[in-house]
């Protein structure tokens, strides 16, 4: 395969297509392997199923190229058995993927990050104008990426309810986790399902799916959650070492915090490269600050 990849290519599009096929094959093999490692796939897999996925991808690709009226493209791939002769592909549909504002309610976007030995989650709360209300990142104890996604949704929903909110909409980009929390009544995560069921009934919470491309803010916040060393929820518990910028320190005893002052300090730290991630928001008296230091303040609220 390495010889195939490194050999000199021709100027024709047919040779270019043949030149790219090894990369496509490697991608689908790696994709299947990663799904097993990170816990998104359960059950067995066969080489035949991977081959079918590869052929479907290439067939769809060739269908899109056929509009260019390139002679001989399909004939060569048919002769080499890359696509079957009786294979039919539906017309490709292209659509824009974007985050959609909620209708007269708050929307909570969640995501999780899992690597062996570490897991974390994140949630971002926005209003019906799309403006940031608050955000949170938190460590998790999970054994797979699927479990991390489920625990992240449950943690973030619980966080919202504890803050006094109800009637909000929760979105995740993990369809499998959404199914376990809304449809699977038995099994390993039965407790989480029962908890979310109660929230739906008592707090009028709804759950939905969002495409991963439209959930990037929560995704990047979740990636930083695995580096959290400590959590603090009350201002009086913050260590003296926590600072916002050069020479500026958060008043531990002050309840009236100047949010604009904090926003400017966080922006300065971001420009200086001292933060892995920073966000802030007012949430029923809660102030969110995420800093890259020995300690990380997640959120704190009224006692």
CATH class of the largest domain: Alpha Beta
Strand order, largest beta sheet = 3-2-1-4-5
Low-confidence stretches: 238-262, 273-303
Instruction: Tell me what portion of residues adopts beta-strand conformation.
Output: 5-15%
Number of E-type strands: 9
Count of domain modules: 3
Structure at a glance:
The protein has about 300 residues and is of the alpha/beta class.
Describe the 3D structure:
Mean pLDDT is 69; it is low at 238-262 and 273-303. This protein has 303 residues and is of the alpha/beta class. A 5-stranded mixed β-sheet has the order 3-2-1-4-5, sandwiched between helices. It has a two-stranded antiparallel sheet with strand order 6-7. It has 3 domains: 2-79, no CATH class; 99-228, Ribonuclease H-like superfamily/Ribonuclease H (Nucleotidyltransferase, domain 5), CATH 3.30.420.10; 229-303, no CATH class. The chain starts with a helix and ends in a 16-residue tail after the last strand. It has 9 helices and 9 strands.
Looking at this protein, list some descriptive labels.
9 helices, two-stranded antiparallel ribbon, 9 strands, Nucleotidyltransferase, domain 5, RNaseH_domain, alpha/beta, elongated, RNase H type-1 domain-containing protein, 3 domains, disordered C terminus, five-stranded mixed β-sheet
